[in-house]
From TrEMBL:
Residues of the SGNH hydrolase-type esterase domain: 16-210
Region: Disordered, residue numbers: 236-255
Gene3D superfamilies assigned: SGNH hydrolase
Name of the protein: Rhamnogalacturonan acetylesterase
Length: 255
């Protein structure tokens, strides 16, 4: 009789649903990076990040295209669903995706209720800011939809990550010019995917995506969100040692 070892423990899954600011990008769109792409590197091996965010989707179209229903069906007790929409919901110029604030709130509520029905944990996130400076100050770019997100979180007692506010503060720290580094800002010839350049104040560079993911992780840790903070990766002994400054007294490191 063949010996079978113990069944490995089931990993916790963090599902990400949202729009292009989170989504997994293709090689053809690199260096555009969604903040969901580096998120998994901040967690230990007991966690799997399943990024189901899609470019161009609002809460309404995400539901209408049957993107949410398979996720809800797959949820297991103890899983997490991180929800960040708003960019496309508020796009009145695109009626194919526009969703009124009231309908946006109802759709968020559906995500929350159906997540909880599966004994999983919803976390609501306000839409990450667009880069928009005026007189040296980063402007608020999602007023109505961030307010609707926060109101729902309060009413339903759902953990809230105010990424709108946090990302605006980050851009202000970088400043009007340096904050370009966080976004897909390319001059002609910088990258073969964008031979004519790109001036994009919505989608992130690799650096910007990592910085936004760090903001999310910092709030998970600060709020001790539903035990999720217990799954954050810990520094290894090697990486925890500060690097030795270069100079005559510096010792060579063992490869």
């Amino acid at each position: 009789m063949a010996f079978t070892g113990p069944t490995p423990p089931r990993k916790t899954t963090i599902y990400l649903i949202g729009d292009s600011t989170i989504a997994q990008k293709t090689r053809q769109t690199f260096p555009e990076t969604g903040w969901g792409m580096p998120l998994g590197t901040f967690f230990d091996t007991t966690v799997v990040v399943a990024n189901h965010a899609q470019n161009g989707r609002s809460t309404r179209t995400f539901l209408a295209e049957n993107r949410w229903q398979p996720i809800a069906a797959a949820l297991q007790p103890g899983d997490y669903v991180l929800v960040q929409f708003g960019h496309n919901d508020e796009s009145e110029a695109h009626p194919d995706r526009y969703t009124s604030p009231a309908d946006y709130r109802r759709n968020l509520l559906k995500f929350v209720q159906e997540t909880r029905a599966r004994k999983a944990y919803p976390v609501i996130i306000t839409p990450v800011t667009r880069r928009k400076f005026k007189d040296g100050r980063q402007q608020e770019t999602h007023v109505a939809y961030s307010a609707a997100t926060a109101e729902l979180a309060r009413a339903e007692r759902v953990p809230l990550i105010d990424l709108d506010k946090l990302s605006r503060e980050l851009l202000q720290q970088f400043g009007e010019e340096n904050s370009r580094l966080l976004f897909l800002q390319l001059a002609p010839g910088d990258h073969p995917n964008y031979p004519y350049g790109r001036q994009d104040n919505t989608h992130f560079s690799e650096l910007g995506a990592r910085k936004m993911a760090q903001l999310v992780v910092s709030e998970i840790k600060a709020q001790q969100l539903l035990g999720l903070a217990d799954h954050l990766a810990q520094p290894t002994a090697k990486n925890a040692v500060p690097p030795t400054p270069a100079g005559k007294d510096a010792q060579p490191t063992t490869p």
